[in-house]
Amino acid sequence: MTIFRIPKFSLTNGEKLSEVEIAYECYGELNADKSNAILVTHGITASHIAAGIVTLDRRKGWWNEIIGPGQLFDTSKYCIVSSNVLGSCYGSTGPASINPTTGKPYGTHFPEICLEDIVSAQHMLLQSLGIEKLVAVAGSSIGGFQVFQWAVSFPDYMAGILALDTSLKDIVETGSSLKNLLHNLSEDQSWNDGDYYDRGGMEDKLTEIRIKTLKSYGFDEKLDETLDEPSREKILTDTAREWALEFDINSLITSMQSVASFDVEHELDKIRAKVLYILCDTDEWFPSSIGKEVTSKLTNVGVEAKFFEVHSKKGHFATTEEPEKWVPEAKKFLLALQN
Description:
Structural class: alpha/beta
CATH architecture of the largest domain: 3-Layer(aba) Sandwich
Number of strands: 8
Strand order of the largest sheet: 1-2-4-3-5-6-7-8
Order of helices and strands: EEEEHEHEHHHHEHEHH
Helix content: 25-40%
Shape: globular
Radius of gyration: 19 Å
Number of helices: 9
Strand content: 15-25%
């Protein structure tokens, strides 16, 4: 992990953060003129570890299967930059970080941020590396929100974007989910209105929340079909608890706030990049039924966009678990960007 530091960062809402840190990883090397970079963006509870081994139990990076020599994001050809988002708890400045003014974690006093802020910090990171233009920005789910925000905020900074399992605005009613989450947390004695850092953490509540989330993503469908029910439940619970032990719930709240305000539908005419838009037919969060409508909105304002549908039983996990179903299309897309 490498840390990029910003002495003072101005947010879209006018507030300022001092001593901001953004964690990131690079896979592959920048070429002489630094024209071979691809930015990959992560989901709402993921980290900047997109490839390689993440934990002692050998959990892999979220795009481990498509980053590396000879893969879609070929590290012998491209430099893949993966940035942890502002507000996260995996190395970047977020609610669990120490507020330099108080000497204590920001907690619920961390300012509300939006997707524009997240992307702006990434842009500053890339500029610090000497990267003036990207080959592409690619991301899935909430990472896909970042991809579309990039295309609107910095339209000339990339040749293309790959947006998977996502949409042009928040269509999953994140605002309502956030209200329900806060109500759920308030029932836990350790919560203390978000200032729980000295109360032993929120492991049990976070495990409960994560189990529900994984089920909604289609986690059960990704498991070996030969496993019996007790084995499946154990894997689900162990996976959820592992996340609960390392994640800060205030980071989830901050991220959900940023997602709830996301909407670039009225700014599509700013996009200059070519677009490959990929959805899965069993994804309950971003159903493939929206694919043609989103693509039409893009093409109607002159954006060169193509929609590709993945057929899978694995729902929101499909593009991660079965990359072979969409990678050939993405390879053609990346090749076309450089011709």
